[in-house]
Every structure is written in C-alpha cells, then in structure tokens.
Amino acid sequence: MIIIFTIKSYIKKPNTIIKDLTILNDNYKDFFAELGDEKAIEKIVKDIDTDYIEGAIYLKYNETILMDFTYWDIIDQLWAYMVNLVDDSLKNQETEFYFPDQPIKLQIKSLSNNFTLLSIESTTKTQITLPKYDFYKAILESAKEFFLKTQEYFGNAVEYSYESELINKLENELANMI
Q1: With 90 as the cut, is the pLDDT of residue 21 above it?
Q2: Residues 139, 130: contact at Cβ < 8 Å?
C-alpha cells in the first residue's frame, strides 16, 4: 500500500463569521483561502491581523480525513505546536497539546520504532495508527511550506526563524533514523 498524506494550509478570510460548523467542510471556499493560492491570499493579506492569523490545517491519510475545516484555529501557532509535537515525540513515548484557541487535544503515542498512534479529541475522538517516519516527514515538510509562504505574504510582520531552525534540525534527525 502506498502511503499518502495530504496536508494543506488554509487562511481564514477576514470578516467572515463561521456560525455553523456542519456546513463548513462543504462550503470551505466561502471561509478559507488555500495558502498556495497566491491570488486569493493577496486579496485578503492586507486585512489579516498578523498577531492572530486564523486558518485550518487539512490533514488526510490515504482516504481518512484526520483534520478538516472544523478544526480551524490560530494557524501559525497550531503549526508551531505540530512541529513541537514531532520534536517531543522523538524524545518521549507520548506527547500531547491542545489547540491554541479551541478545546481540541492532539496526542501522539509511540507504538514501536515504525508506528505511532495519533489521537484527536474534541466532541468525538479519532484514533489512527500511522507510519511514524512518513507522518513526521509530511508534517515537517508541510510546516516548512506554511512558514515560508506565510513569511512571503506577510514579510516583517511575522517571524518564524525559531520554527524554521527547529524544522531543519528535526529533518536532519529524521534523515538519520532511516
């Protein structure tokens, strides 16, 4: 089986109010712009508070959606938490964090050298066993892309050098694990 992770970052459009989470996934384009869609981001970048960049990380493993648009939050902090999660899980058997602005818990538990258990707990609990190396690699690549693109869009208004350095360090650690 081919392992496929789909991870995309979306920025919430300013001045859009999300009132109903049940319609969010089907109508996400009304509320979010994909980070890679430069034309859409350039239209909204001037209206975004860089201290509170809201957005969503869409995370899918093969055909299983693990994080969708209902998990939107302060996206740059959420990505920093994800990078720290990889760092912590390389040192510890189990680690967790709560989303910056929502009561959502994300937990990683090492099952072996090759597999990890990902748990996401909000109103429901999702658990899935993932290939550790591929999952961490996908998270780090997507985080790096997020921080680079966000830096391009917002310039000096944001600072992600710590996160970038940590990602590079973790990528080297992962490369040595193979």
Answers
A1: no
A2: no
